[in-house]
Design brief:
This protein has 261 residues and is an alpha/beta fold. It contains ten helices and nine strands. The protein binds 2'-O-acetyl adenosine-5-diphosphoribose (OAD).
Length: 261
């Protein structure tokens, strides 16, 4: 017999109540209800575009205007979007519990939800594991630079450039592209957090991209539990180790976290 959502919620809430540390992993699905497309599936980013053309160093070197115009469109869409009920519930939860958010999203909505609660910049800020749409760094010397308000991608001459006089390389989005490694400090931190967590709460991700895809199993390897919130769940396991909460993040996450210490 399959478990109902209410039964799975009860089990997941029991684990969260008993938990010392919690790692929250999020993906594009947590921002879907803010109007940001996911990457995979119908109407998603990768269904109409080529990841290699738009999100790789090779693609950028071949056509930086095309890459920047795609990112500028995403930046504009995110600027006019708002954090949803899931982002807000998570922001409140991570201020009161020993819980840390690690997001694959580059939209900054977790951070905006935290600031919306008046939470100052803190050691507990969400980890933006794949970078941010609102950070740039030099393609040539790799140094970060100020985030331009808007980017004119109509020609190579109007694209943002490194401010260092001896460099003047093109600036690129500070995002981990295909074929690039996660910065070592963040990679090691993610493994530490996953292994120390009593519960790994996985929200709105297809878990198709490594190394994030491995993290829930790191929690289970150290006797922790995995709770998943997804409209199409992907985490497998017995009722002793996993709870699949099937539904939209904006509905399920506030319900899951309400009243938890
Ligand atoms: P995907 O597009 O692969 O997966 C989105 C997941 O969200 C799917 O499992 C959906 O079922 C689920 N979903 C959709 N709407 C939802 C909702 N309202 N509530 C809950 N779940 C929902 O996105 P990611 O797993 O985040 O990397 O993709 C991982 C990485 O692949 C991205 O960070 C991106 C991409 O290539 C980079 O660009 C570096």
């Amino acid at each position: 017999m399959t478990e109902t959502l209410i039964e799975a919620l009860e089990r997941a809430r029991g684990w969260l109540k008993a938990a010392g540390r919690v790692l929250v992993i999020t993906g594009a699905g947590v921002s879907a209800e803010s109007g940001i497309p996911t990457f995979r599936g119908g109407g998603a980013y990768w269904s109409g575009f080529s990841p290699n053309e738009l999100s790789s160093v090779r693609g950028f070197d071949a056509n930086p205007c095309l890459v920047w115009s795609w990112y500028e469109e995403r930046r504009a869409r995110v600027r006019s979007a708002e954090p949803n009920a899931a982002h807000r519930a998570l922001a409140a939860y991570t201020t009161r519990a020993d819980a840390r958010i690690l997001t694959q999203n580059v939209d900054g909505l977790h951070l905006r939800a935290a600031r919306g609660l008046g939470t100052p910049s803190a050691a507990n800020d969400p980890i933006e594991f794949h970078g941010s749409l609102f950070k740039v760094r030099c393609r040539r010397c790799h140094r970060p630079g100020p985030n331009p308000e808007t980017i004119d991608a109509s020609s190579r001459d109007t694209l943002p450039r490194c401010l260092r006089p001896h460099c003047r390389g093109l600036m690129r989005p500070d995002i981990v592209w295909f074929g690039e490694a996660i910065p070592e400090e963040n990679r090691l931190l993610s493994i530490k957090l996953a292994r120390e967590a009593d519960v790994c709460l996985v929200i709105g991700t297809s878990l198709e991209v490594y190394p994030v895809a491995d993290l829930p199993d790191q929690t289970r390897d150290t006797d922790g539990k995995v709770v998943e919130v997804n409209v199409f769940p992907v985490v497998r396991g017995t009722t002793n180790t996993a709870a699949n909460l099937v539904g939209k993040a904006g509905d399920v996450v506030p319900e899951l976290l309400a009243g938890l210490p």
